[in-house]
Amino acid sequence: MKPFAYVKPADVEAALRAVATEPGAKFLGGGTNLVDLMREGVERPDTVIDVTGLPLDAVDDLPDGGLRIGALVRNSVLAADPRIRARYPMLSQALLAGASPQLRNMATVGGNLLQRTRCAYFYDAAAACNKREPGAGCDALDGFTRGHAVLGVSGSCIAAHPSDMCVALAALDAVVEVRSVRGDRRIPIGEFHLLPGDTPQNETALAPDELITAVELPALPVAARSRYRKVRDRASYAFALVSVAAALEVRDGAVAGVRLALGGVGAKPWRARAAEEALLGGAADEAAFRRAAEAELAAATVRPGNAFKTALATATIAATLRELAREEDAG
Amino acid sequence: MSTDVAEAVRTETVPNVGRPLDRVDGPAKATGEAKYAADHDYPGLAHAALVHATVARGRVTALDTEAARAVRGVIDVLTHENAPRMRPVKRFSLGSFVKGSSVNYLATDEVHWDGQPIAVVVAETPAAARHAASLVRATYEELPAAVDFAAEEPKAVPQKGNAMFSSAADKGDANAALAVAPVSVDLRFVTPPYNHNAIEPHATTAVWNGNRLTVHDGTQSIAFVRKHLAMRFGVPERDIRVLAPYVGGGFGGKGMVWAGTLLAVLAARATGRAVRLALTRESVYRTVGGRTPTTQRVALGADRDGRLTALVHTSVARSGGMPEQVTSASRHLYAAETVHLRQNVVHLDLVPPTAMRAPGEAVGTFALESAVDELAWRLDMDPIELRMRNEPERDPLTGKAFSHRMLREAYALGTERFGWRERDPRAGAMRDGRWLVGMGVATAYHQPIRFPASVTVRMGADGAVVVRCGLHEIGVGAATVQRQIAADQLGVPLESVRVEVGDSDLPAGPIAAGSGQTASAAASVLAACDKLKRQLLALAGPPLRGRAIGDVQARDGGLFHGGGGRTYAEILAGAGRDHVEAAVKDGWVNFLARSARDGRRWVHGASGAHFCEVRVDADTGEVRVSRWLGVFDVGRVINAKTAAGQLRGGIVMGLGMALSEQTLVDPRTGRVVNASLSEYHVPVHADVPRIDVHCLDDPDPTTPLGLLGVGEVGVTGVPAAVANAVRHATGKRVADLPITLDKLL
Ligand SMILES: Cc1cc2nc3c(=O)[nH]c(=O)nc-3n(C[C@H](O)[C@H](O)[C@H](O)COP(=O)(O)OP(=O)(O)OC[C@H]3O[C@@H](n4cnc5c(N)ncnc54)[C@H](O)[C@@H]3O)c2cc1C
Ligand code: SF4
Predict the structure, then answer these.
(1) A single Pfam family, by name (chain A) (predicted)?
(2) The total number of structural domains that make up chain B
(3) Prediction ipTM score
(4) From the CA of B168, how far away is ligand 2's center (Å)?
(5) Fewer C-beta within 10 Å: chain B N or C terminus?
(6) What is the pLDDT of residue B4?
């Protein structure tokens, strides 16, 4: 690991000043991703600004029934929050499906939003990777692609976005609040993560000097009946091959409300708008669920190693919606 | 002087052997007091880190170490340009018969595999060493390399057999019999490379004192390490001390001498400092071999009653490491009329493979036991019934007697305990909500090896007993079980026996391999205790004087005949001695003679029956193992707790082989792509159900104390049992491991 300077500011203003004045500075949340990447030589900050002392660790009610989550709330704390569990169960389930208890105790909401891909070639300094070194090429394209994305990919990069939490946030239309010495911004989750295109090194809309301060969840009654289903290579402690965040409201046998987002298959947390559109107003039955899933996956670009993901995603979407519909029936 | 330890067989029931006792090393490990190879501090201790080659084959044309040297705290960067030379490996040397350990690291510019160490950085701190290592830049002249097993596999050549394992066998004309068999299966199997992933990454602390060397090393063979270092550094063995009182697991990965050990010693020599080289997990993947990948063909022919008329098992594995006995279980498990076995190997330019828990059998039984199951489907016959119809009375190929064989009992007991009769024989017929439920069985089989073991047993005037043997505590309870044995043999309380292990200054112990450490040492402990009692009897006055050893009993801390006798303390006091000591010396000459003699008479094997229940998600193909029972014949069980731990651990490892583990070697470059525990998926707790282990606990009449061996048999058969249960749940036969969900979609 390259030697670096370490500072721990006590308030947000000091943190913002530090990042604006220190070139090559990075914020440090729980460190569960940044420190790993520093160890591998992928991240090489000159200064690390530890933000865990900042007072951004509360979950506050919003007047309309939504919630505002401080950027430093730990993943395990957020998953256990009774308001999250009652109003947005998919988010709680997504958090608990990620990593391990020890990691979730450390990981912060801000850090989770910015965690980087697990593409093995990205991690390996001996491999060619456009994300790590623009223009170097992409060893994943003809390599092991089991973990790679099939939606939103480009010829430059097929890395999957690894976060479970972000999939739920995408389904819930969360808004990311950020701040810098230049002022505050609100970034809708759908615009926060970028598709790789020809510039896979640019991953988010966040500027280097911007601090994530909070994530806002709008009030969303349909989310009270929602779930997160994660499919992976072992029962726990593995990244998603496919995951589905879904909320469903059925009225008179027809879909009256739906939210659907996918993980493991997208170059970014994937809001499944095509599927939602196909479902809305239609029958809430197996055939419709599958058709909707297929509509979403029609745009998939697969490699031999990840071609199974279209079928797997289709099956997982259908199964998740089926279970939600059954729950509705049950009351 | 040598004692034939087989003479000292004792089979009387005794109080400590058989008890499920806690391990003596437990408290030290639980409290963190136990010191592993990387936990030893020395004045001026320096830290080393490896630089790995990033091409599979070629020459290093330039090494830029300037940036590395400029890092604060760096003491030296050793490369082939400046490192002291190690002596080459002699042609035959145990401990270095894995080619990987024979490479003359840092002696030439040659690169033999991606990951081979090409430089070692020595620094004041581990962080400085690792950072500097990342700054070393190499340029290469690349040479063509063979790295893709699937592509090279057709070029395989017959594997050379050796004295212990031959690589081919025939009985009759199996291919002809197969062609005319009324019912047959012919399947091709693929198993991927695997890595051991012991919890303790390999580590070495090396200290030179003039020409004397002390090495703390995480090893399964102290003796190999010492011998190998003596050869490579040109110092006599007596000037080298190797210490390994605690080893954090090995599974075969610490059986040979790999780069880390050698380079730590070399770095210490070059810098004049005590040096610790604790490999990162990535460095373990790059410098220590794992289990060879295989392709296998198993074809079975049978008559309509299920009697096997032909058994064909051929395999391709990698050369260079252990000669893997992939087809060995096919020699002993079934009474087929005709048999054809062949093992082939192919050379690859990758880190050489090495032994990994049940080398050969673990993957060979996957193929054989899957094929037998598939034959049962063809015959529409219960798979246990099919096995029982082909259970041999004598060894099928040689006609020799089995020293012990209880597979019938194992399956009978398992059938009851597991509720096998509740299995609906139709595929896909058992369903529980979203889950397709399946049940499968497979046979476990492993032949333990008995290695030489030298031992001393000392009785002090205060009644304290010290057993000394260079055993390896790799997490198996090595000291615990020998203590139980010695206490019983001498008739003293457990608490008065101390067992010293893990030091080359002790009498040479067996290597911790081949499921043989415990039984090998036990044989010598028995012999030494016997000798000690004879010496004590000779020293004893009345009422024991003149008694034959067979007429006295060792109990209550002394020797007794009828109601009369003397405590050991009394005997020693009477003789004016402060202790007596008995030594049993055992070596490779004995070993060869014993193996030859035993091998002529009997076929030894630990065996078992695995019962597995899986649940397969009907939508996604996710496989969850929901129940497990293993019924084993491992001969006598010394300690039910440590034995069950070994068997259960083997089953967990088998679950990983079956469902999630594989080392991904990039077929373009030969580079391991998932060199980390976050991408190499060993089973986590959520993957492992409650595992019910039952040992039949019946002593083998031909071995000292009736022991067979428990370390490896547990893993054999496990992947097949899972695959067979998946076949039952889904109707799909998955013949390439691991059984990932995409194969079931
Ligand atoms: C073994 C392992 C398994 C894992 N498994 C999963 C999994 O299954 N699913 C899953 O979703 N995740 C998984 N993770 C990833 C884990 O969720 C992330 O590492 C974690 O969420 C990152 O949060 P952190 O606070 O530790 O971030 P850090 O590592 O501290 O930071 C990550 C990035 O965010 C930046 N950053 C942090 N806070 C802020 C802020 N407030 N404003 C601006 N920038 C900021 C940092 O500069 C850095 O670039 C796993 C991680 C590991 C190590
Ligand atoms: S997929 Fe993306 S992250 Fe992975 S190697 Fe290619 S460019 Fe790099």
Answers:
(1) CO_deh_flav_C
(2) 1
(3) 0.97
(4) 46
(5) N
(6) 40
